[in-house]
Amino acid sequence: MLIGATKTDGTNTLKRPFVPEKFKFGNSASKRTRNTQFDRVVPSNEIVKSKGNKRHSIRGSVSAMRTTNPIRSVVDKLDLTQANPEFPVISLSLGDPTVHFKTHPIVTHALTEAVESYSANGYPPMIGLHKARNAVAEYHTRMGKNVTFEADDVIMTNGCSQAIQLSLSALADAGIHNVLIPNPGFSLYKSICTNLGVEAREYELDESNGWELDLESIQKSIDDNTVAIILTSPSNPTGAVHSIRSVTKLLEICEQNGIVLIADEIYYGHVFQSIEWKSVAEINSQLEHSAAVLCLGGLSKRFLVPGWCLGWILIHDPTNMLGEVRIALEKVSSLMVGPSGPTQDALPRILKEVPESWHLELISQLEQNAMFCYEQVKKNPVLSAIKPQGSMFMLIRIEFERLLDISDSVAFANGLFQEKSVVVLPGECFGSTYHFRISYTAPIHTLQEAFNRIHHFCLDHSRKY
């Protein structure tokens, strides 16, 4: 968990924070894992005696024991007693908009109506109710330009997280294939690859160029065993929106190499004013030689109901390269018999009746919050950031050479929580030692208080020039 350091008496110096093994991930952590007892295959009926205990211990599976979700390892085990009691806790950690925003009434009415109808209480088809799949296809056809989807192009999932898992399960074989993931990027990509026994290769996002895709890094990472590239735009954690030009070139790379592009578009449409954005499917449909694309989406961010866990996979395959992958997606979907029936039953009304003006108002408020945070960062000589273009996040760089006793983002996040009761996520959760991530869904007055505390924390630990 995030907590572990304590203040020494009478000073602001932080002891080196305790960082649990589950939080230490990356290449060095992978090497440690490969050297552990979990590396060998253990028969399921093997029983091992615990030292100094007459009881017995049964081993967990190799795939389970190597699995971790860095974000949840921090947030779910946060010890609030370690916060400074002089300040109420302010959390800027999770991208959960429901703490400060409410969904549109049509959304909740649609679900209530579905539950009270008793029409969707049975087992749904493994790939989802036809009415839900058709609603998703019509919605994305209506929202895009020159792109058409049918119900057969849609797989319903338990949230966008399962959409990621099903996509990778359908494409990659353990110990053989590799998948390219963004760095910095959403930690679940690597977590799922690790669980599946698939190599996750990081490609770089160029901070000096507004977190744009580093196409050279991508091309260098591809080999004959690369089966997919994951793209996140709008991005978690950077808040960047990749240019249409860069996405076009990435699609061309995928087409030339026979690689599937997995477009994580859970922040579909969460793009700020004056920023040009198109869905990957829309860009792909305009190319002379289209790539094979899986577009992932869901209700959670756009409709502010992450707890409903309803997502989908949209198959965009103009040149019919994904025939076997369609079958594979259906097969892995059968491991869990579809997401909630009532939620799927409510989906057609939600996608059809919630006005676009409501979405635009939400995005406008998020943009105001983002710009406020960006201006606050600019006032702090220890911090810097790229101006966000969408999603709900900002990745903030820490200039460690300006600090006396803090040398990585875990120590920074620990100290900020213990001294000022502000929760942020260390950049290590996303592949960077030099940053921390904030979500700016809180009201402006809360963000102001949070940044006041962050500013004073930085001053307390700054070198005196």
UniProtKB/TrEMBL annotation:
Protein's GO biological process: L-tyrosine catabolic process
- Where in the numbering of this chain does the Aminotransferase class I/classII large domain appear? 89-454
> Gene3D superfamilies, from UniProt?
Aspartate Aminotransferase, domain 1, Type I PLP-dependent aspartate aminotransferase-like (Major domain)
Q: Which cofactor is essential here?
A: pyridoxal 5'-phosphate
Keyword set includes Transferase: yes
Tell me which residues bear N6-(pyridoxal phosphate)lysine: 301
Per UniProt, what is one Pfam family of this protein?
Aminotran_1_2
Keyword annotations from UniProtKB, A to Z? Aminotransferase, Pyridoxal phosphate, Transferase
* A GO term for molecular function: pyridoxal phosphate binding
Check the record and name the CDD domains matching this protein.
Answer: AAT_like
SUPFAM superfamilies in the record: PLP-dependent transferases
The family this protein is said to belong to: Belongs to the class-I pyridoxal-phosphate-dependent aminotransferase family.
Q: What is this protein called?
A: Aminotransferase class I/classII large domain-containing protein
Organism, by scientific name, is Timspurckia oligopyrenoides
